[in-house]
Fold this protein.
Amino acid sequence: MDKKVITSDKAPKAIGPYSVAIRTGNLVFSSGQLGLDPATGNLVLGGIEAETRQAITNLRHVLSDAGSGLEGVIKTTVFLKDMAEFVNMNAVYAEFFTENPPARSTVQAAALPKGGAVEIEAIAILK
């Protein structure tokens, strides 16, 4: 089996017994990224917009270190603490996925790690 564990010095470390991403064949499967500042491990300030921006930035770094990028994302799953924040999350999300956006599911979760407002995971193809 072709399975490579991906890490990134530019994104937060895993906060549990899991890999930040796994690359197999021409696919990359990322774990959910929160709006964590990689330097401090704390959530960024500024609400859902800031957390969404940081989560996608973290995702970008993980995918880059795996040999892909946001342009290679074919599917995301967005977990929201409060579905009432959907419009605000979606506005920031649209800044990153401007052309041919990936398929996406968005669900509300009762709670997210570290009290986060949003968590985003992705499946991407290699460049």
